[in-house]
Every structure is written in structure tokens, then in C-alpha cells.
Design brief:
The structure is a homotetramer of 202-residue chains.
Chain A lengths: L7 H15 L9 H8 L3 H7 L3 H26 L3 H14 L7 H6 L17 H22 L9 H20 L9 H15 L2
Helix pairs in contact in A: 1-2, 1-4, 2-3, 4-5, 4-7, 5-7, 5-8, 7-8, 8-9
Chain B binds a DNA duplex (21 and 21 nucleotides) through helix 2 and helix 3.
Chain lengths: 202, 202, 202, 202
DNA sequence: TATGAATGAGACTTCATTCAT
DNA sequence: TATGAATGAAGTCTCATTCAT
């Protein structure tokens, strides 16, 4: 997607920041000192590569989202068939149970992206591109489902996309609040998510 | 739910804070000066009622959630029949298009509650109560749907709740990203959300 | 000495303050709220009687010093003979071991009075009067000693006063740092203080 | 004594603080802004070297006391003979007439050390060491007096130390309240102080 | 007269950013 | 280029004082 090349130091800063955030640091509470320490560089160096702290955080976020989306698409692409691809999506979500900064949470959650970091600088308008990228994959999934005869419903593309997004969102809720559902194990939650998809699309 | 009585000044602080947040202020960026100005009181007065800024924000949030849930339940309760009640839920979501701090966004979104404000002080453990309260209403809705014969699926309560939550979540996504769906008007989005519910539950 | 009459509320404020100080409160750290609570009156009432917090504290201090001096003089007056009078002075000092705000500490200590409370308001120039009052008592003590033949030295009044003040000061040091002198009990410290006086004045 | 090495900035802060205090600033009234200005550094810099204002003040005090004691001991050591050494002690006191923050005032005054700054942080337990250091010098003085035959009294070490401390304390009182003793010049005050010592120790 | 709720000046402290090295 | 010591603006919180009751 983005073919921007980053310098070694920029990558160190991105990875430092991503580690901080994945460990639960709050975007608004992170200090430049923490970023420098996490990246194992001097504080001043950050300002050689970014104009402000907000720019560094923004670019790290966009970089991370990009990576996560590429990674997720690779994994889904590696699977064949509607069901396997959908389950792979669920697996990716499940694996990020502990990850406080999981892109999918944001892409699928109601609030959207821009809201979650007030100071987000998205000069490249990457976020809309990311959303389109994810939607393209959903469309691809739906195509395959249709070709396999797993989807027969005659409805707008909007409807079909909505079904997938809603179902993934419902499963994300399960993963995030697992302790509220002691009677449902991960496998069953996946099966029920898939069941809802199939029913909704037929 | 909570029967806590609040003083005039506490309410002024809560309402000032809620207005700030609804206007888009970020929980982490709000200053005590802003709170005081929004509440039209002196800065020091806040500390006569709350020990810290975080306590003031936390209590305002919990107060607001409580109010929103009471209001939403009242509206849903006033409607009769499965379809009318479900559409009323959609209406409440739709009406909060402009509201950046809409409780339902959080209750339905994947991230859950506790995470959205790092410093949340919830001494009364209200959040779990709120979630239960909302689930109780969903169960009630499902009961009515079953009695009306609108729901025939033979599945866990978990499945049925998930269907409702997922569908509402999908509709919230529509409301939040309306501009991405120019071909779908609000009415159609509601109809398609309902369609998905009916298909999933039969 | 001062024949100023104080109202009931003024006395409540003085006594509240004196208690606070005797309990170890620091003159600079005392708040108006604490004074009000200690005096069991409203905060605003303090400002009906004093222009500022500093005035209240200053007048309380002067009131307390006055009382302490009167009390000390009464006790010394009740004793007859040079030795008994001197020992009574030592007793008064000893009894104030626990009292963090003991006038004698200041009257006898090197720093003097004005320094110990930066904001001291002494409109009546009471402090010099207090010092004179104490010196008069020392002179009286010396007279008696001379008449009893206990003092034979032929020196300035300055020298003789200095001997008494120095000796009392040395004993005060003992009382304040008792734990540093485990081998010396109170009685012996008194005897040695008296010994020094007698030697110096003969 | 302390062999702690301080950085340039720490020394700037210490010296700024000591100047403030010597000029009469009250320990409790000093603000961080004043410290920064006196040290000619930024306010934030103070917090790069000390955790709190109280720590900065405490360490400056202990640093100053240490220096003053070293200085005083050097001067007394440079004199030979009981009388010259005692007079040198008096000279040091006399020279500090204008110095509002003279260590000896505290070491010799009745109140002791710990009480004069409520927030004193003395992690190294320096104060007791300082007191011992001063007492060692007094013992040394007494030894010399004994060897010279100036001291013949047969009494506890406590008594002899007390005589020196009391006499110095009496002289400090003279220095502090000079204006009250117009008939006594500095030389005579010293002579009378020495007279009291000799009489008391023989 | 007596109160204490309310105020806002000013305190301490943090941290994004700069810049000499 | 890389650093981190230094800065000071801006934040949170305290508390002397006022004033409506």
C-alpha cells in the first residue's frame, strides 16, 4: 500500500511507540521521554525526524495500521474458500485479545478512526484508503461465497458488507469481554458468528 | 438505577463536562479551567466537590451513562412489539449522530468501557451494572420477538444477544460513516439492519 | 502587663491557635480552616476580629507569650531565696519539654523573637517589653542572691544577667536534647546548672 | 565530612538558596520561582536535580551547615591555646551578626536542628554527625584548657561541655541583641564570656 | 453577628521542545 | 547526525479572603 520508505531511526521510533501502545500506554499520556527510551535513542533525535510528538505518534499509528492490514490480508489470502477465509478473520481478531491497540478494533468499532486520537495527522488521507482496502477484501470474500453457493441472498452490496462487518464486530465484542461469557468457548463463538453470517446471507 | 442525589454545583460540573465532551473535547485533554468555565463556576469549587479532576470526569461520565441508559430504556419501553422496539433502538442511535460521546457507541463498540478512560474511577462498580441493564433489555426484546413468533431459531441466549448487538453495531457504523454510504438512506439502513436480525434469528 | 481585654471569640481563636502550635503545627503551615476548626467557629468569623491570618497568629503569639511570662513570674515569685527561685526557673523550663512553642525557648535562644515568625505584627512593641520584664525578674533574682551572700562577684549588671541567661540556655539545651545525655538525669542537670551559676557569680 | 560531589547546577541551586536564606528569606516562604531566579536557572532545572522543593532546600541547608562547620573548625584549629581558641569561636559568632542563617545559631540555640525546618529531609543522618563534630571540637578545647592548667574543676564531661555551650550561647545572645547593650562593646562582651568560662571551670 | 460556599491568585510540578556540544 | 541538559509554558491543586445568607 504505502510505499514510503522509512529510515532506521524512524522505524526505531515507530516500533518503540507501537510497543508502548501495545503494552497499554495511553496515546494521550505518552511522553517524548518514554518514546525516546522505548526507541533507544535521544530525545532530540525524534525532532530530527518529526516536527512534533503528535506527528510521531500519528505516523506510528498509520504505519502500524498499514502493517496490520497487510498482515491480515496476507493471512486471509492464504486461505481458500469462504468459510476458511472468514474463520481466518476471526482467528486474527482472537489472537489480538491482549493487544490494546488492535487496528481491527478501530476499523470495526463504531467510533471510527479519527476520533480515537484527537491529534491524528493524516496528511496522506491514509485512513480512508485503509477502510477501502478492508472493504475490498470483504467484497472479495463475498464474491467467493457467492461463487461457492454459500451466499444466495439478493441484496445490495451494502447489506452484504454490513453482515460481515456486524458479525466480525459481534465476535470482537466476545473476545474483548470473554470473561462475561464463561459458557462459550472460542470455537463456539466462532461457529455462532459464522452461523449468523450464513443465515443473514441466505 | 443509581439513586445518588447530587448538589446543584455537582450537577453544574457534570453538565458542563458532558457538554464539553459532546462538543468533541477529548477526555484526556480537558483542563480544570475548561471544566470551571463550562460549569460557570470558579476553579477551586471543583475541588470542593471532587478530590481530583479525574474523579470529576469519572463521575460525570457515569452520571451521563446512567441518564442515557434510563432515557433509552424509557423510549424502548414505550414501544410495543418486537419490530417497533428494535426500530426505536435504531432511532436512538440515529439521533446521536452528532454526539461524540454517545454511551451506546461504547456499550456496543468492541473496545468496551473501562478502556476508554484510563483514569476512570468506578467505585460503585456501575459499569458492569450498566452492561447488565442493557443486556436485560435485549433479553426482553428477544422474549417479545419469540412470543410474537418473529424468532424461531433454537439457539443459546448468547447467540440471540450477539445477533442484536452485532446488528446494532453494524447500524452504528452506518450512522458514524454515513458519508461513505450515499446510496443508502437512513430508512433503508434500518430496514436492512432489521432484515439481518430476522434472518439470523430464524 | 497588657491590659487589653479580648472578646470571647478572640480568646477562642487565640486558644485554638495556641493548641495547634503546642501540638507541633508550624506557624507557616497553619491554614485558616485549621484555625477555625480549632477555635470551633466559622472561617469568616476570624475576619470579623482580625484583618488577616497573620494578624490573628501574631496576636495569638503575643497573647500566649504574655500569659506564659505572667505565669512564670507568678511561680518564681511564690518561691523565696535565690536557690529556690533559680530552681523554679529550671522547673518551668523542664515542664515544657513537650511544648513545641515554649516562650522561654525563644526568649533565651539566640535567634530572638522577631525572626521566628516572618510576618509577626507587633504594633504595641510588646516584645521589647517582654524582654525587659524578664530581665527585671533576673535582676530581682540577682538582688536576692546578693543579699543572701550567694553572689559576691564584683561585675557589671550585664555580666550577672548574662550568667543567668547563659545557664538557663544551657539547661534548655539539655531539656531539648535529653536523649543525647542518657547519663544525666533532670535533677543532676539542674544541680550542674546551679553550680555553674554559683561559680560564675563568685 | 561529607565527600559528596555536587554538579555545577546543584551548587548553583545551593548557593542561590543559601543567599536567599542569608538575606532573610524564610524557609517556608521561599518559592521555586525565587530559587530558580537566585540560581539563575530555569524553574524546571531544579526538578532535574531534586525530586521536590523540600529536597532542594534540605540539601542546601545540610550543604551549608557542613561548609560552615568545616570553616569554623579550620579557624579554631589554626589557633593555639585555650584562650585563643575560645576567642576564635567568639569571633566566628561575632562575624555572623548579619547572617540570618548562621549554623551556630542553631547548633547552640535551644531549639535544636530538626525543628527549624519541618520538611527537612536528612537521609544521611547528617545532623547528628554535625552535632558530634562540634562536640568533639569542644572536648578538644577542654583538653587543651586542662593541659594548660586553665581548667581544674573536677566534674563530668557533661558539665564542662555545658559551660562552653552556655557561654557561647550567652555571647550569641549579645551579638543578636547588640542594640540592647549599648554600654558593652564587643571586646568586653568577649572578655566577660571568657571570664564566665574560667570561673565555671575552676 | 456568624457562617461556610465560592472564588481565583499563585503555588508546585511536568514535559514538549530547543540547542550547544 | 545525535544527544540530553535546560527551559518555561501550562497544568493541577491549595487556601486566604469575600460575601450572601
Amino acid at each position: 500500500m504505502d510505499n514510503i520508505k522509512y529510515s532506521e531511526k524512524e522505524l526505531a521510533i515507530f516500533n518503540g511507540l507501537i510497543n508502548l501502545i501495545k503494552d497499554g500506554a495511553n496515546l494521550y499520556s505518552i511522553t517524548v521521554s518514554e518514546i525516546a527510551k522505548a526507541a533507544d535513542i535521544g530525545k532530540g533525535t525524534i525532532y530530527d525526524y518529526f516536527k512534533t510528538k503528535e506527528e510521531a505518534i500519528s505516523k506510528a499509528i498509520l504505519y502500524s495500521i498499514n502493517n496490520e492490514i497487510e498482515y491480515a490480508i496476507d493471512r486471509v489470502t492464504s486461505k481458500h474458500g469462504f468459510k476458511d477465509k472468514y474463520y481466518e478473520m476471526l482467528n486474527i481478531i482472537a489472537e489480538n485479545l491482549e493487544n490494546k491497540f488492535f487496528t481491527m478494533n478501530m476499523l470495526l468499532s463504531a467510533g471510527g478512526f479519527e476520533e480515537f486520537y484527537e491529534y491524528l495527522i493524516d496528511e496522506q488521507y491514509s485512513i480512508p484508503l485503509y477502510i477501502s482496502r478492508v472493504e475490498k477484501e470483504i467484497d472479495n470474500l463475498l464474491d467467493i461465497g457467492f461463487k461457492e453457493g454459500k451466499i444466495t441472498v439478493n441484496e445490495d452490496q451494502y447489506y452484504k458488507r454490513m453482515v460481515i462487518k456486524s458479525s466480525l464486530s459481534g465476535f470482537t465484542d466476545y473476545v474483548n469481554m470473554k470473561e462475561r461469557y464463561p459458557e462459550i468457548d472460542m470455537e463456539r463463538a466462532m461457529d455462532l458468528s459464522y452461523k449468523m453470517v450464513i443465515k443473514s446471507l441466505n
